[in-house]
Amino acid sequence: MLSPGAELPTITTMLRTNFYISNRSYTAKQPSLFRGQHRVSSVRITHCSGGGGATAVSSSSRLRDLVFVVNPQGANGRTAQEWKKLLPYLRSRLAKDCNICESLTSGPSHAIDITREAIRDGADAVIAVGGDGTLHEVVNGFFWEGKPVGNLNREAGHSAALGLIPLGTGSDFARTFGWKNDPREAVERIAKGIRARVDVGVIDQEGRASHYFINVADVHLSAKAGFYASKYKKFGNLCYVIGALQAFMGHDNRDMRIKVNGGEWEVYPQVTALCVGNAKYFGGGMKITPNAVPGNGNLEVVVLQDFKWYDFILKLHKLYNGTHLSVNNVSSRSVQSIEVEEISESGSIYVQSDGEHLGFLPRKFQVLPGAIDMIS
């Protein structure tokens, strides 16, 4: 049973009677997710929790508290429409043991704030509803100033889990698990309540705050293509093709140096793209890091060198089915950390993670093994 400090209302108490929509940002001075929220309707929804590793449904009589973080603008508004259609089924399928808070994001980074606040208020799970962008923000919300967000309820004895209902333009992370863009299938996963520990990648640069990713981070051409693709989301998965074509304009392969697991610097000439995978897919279904496993404590690094525009045309099918590791000038290695620098230090080599533009090299990428419990 949740037992908060005297100064804070519990998420459980407030959700047992009401269903709320949150549409404001988190601030550290106002720790309660539900303070001043608009009351919508009475709802109770089931969820099951567990501990580290794979665990079965809990038989506890305490109501579990779920926060659904919904990006209503996702997939050009389709996410909001699909979410509204899903809610009646969600209620009928999961209407015994848990409470739900639906929190609609209002802009970039809002999902991060909502997630941090929900965890601090004692949520049993925070569930991203949308595409990889929404999931990316929710994952970053699990951390604050380089550390996991702590539950303000010190007696809870449990950690918040991460959940996913894939409804966005891209759902590349879900592909690694073989999950479809089927919201009802996602509800079934939540109903079963099985948890598994998954790794998270962290990206560091001197003088900047850490940034986290759960899917794939990448450097140079692919990152530049992702940057342009984000401007064409209205075209659905076609945005990735448009972004790639635009990125090719004026593209030059660059010499880079890398340091793996704190070892010696190695020179990689004429790098076209460097991808760091915690999971397998990016760019709308491209199996770029086919050996990546989100729970094995490693990241897979794939480097493409000296690729020309026609190489991508001739070998695109291999990139999508994950057989490109057999191609000349493609290498792969498993790492716990990797530092990447451009030798010429032009400051123009793009870096992105989970489709979000993060700036330019240099960067250090490393894995946080088993950092998050995920409903799987």
Structural class: alpha+beta
Arithmetic mean of pLDDT: 82
CATH class of the largest domain: Mainly Beta
Second CATH tier, the architecture of the largest domain? Sandwich
Shape: globular
Total helical segments: 9
Low-confidence residue ranges = 1-60
Oligomeric assembly = single chain
Q: What percent of residues are in strands?
A: 25-35%
Distance between the termini: 24 Å
CATH topology of the largest domain: Tumour Suppressor Smad4
Query: How many domains would you count in the coordinates?
Result: 2
The biggest beta sheet reads: 17 strands, mixed
Number of strand segments: 19
Q: How do the SSEs run, as a string of H and E?
A: HEEEHEHEHEEEHHEEEHHEEEHEEEEE
* Rg (CA only): 21 Å
> Roughly what percent helix?
10-25%
Report on this structure:
The protein has 376 residues and is of the alpha+beta class. It folds into 2 domains: 64-193, Probable inorganic polyphosphate/atp-NAD kinase, domain 1 (Rossmann fold, 3-Layer(aba) Sandwich); 208-370, Tumour Suppressor Smad4, CATH 2.60.200. The protein has 9 helices and 19 strands. It has a 17-stranded mixed sheet that branches. A two-stranded antiparallel sheet has the order 6-7. Helix 3 (110-120) crosses helix 4 and helix 7 (221-229) crosses helix 8. The chain is globular and about 60 Å long. The two termini are 24 Å apart. The relative contact order is 0.14. Keywords: ATP-binding, Kinase, Nucleotide-binding, Transferase. This is Sphingoid long-chain bases kinase 2, mitochondrial. GO terms for molecular function: ATP binding; kinase activity.
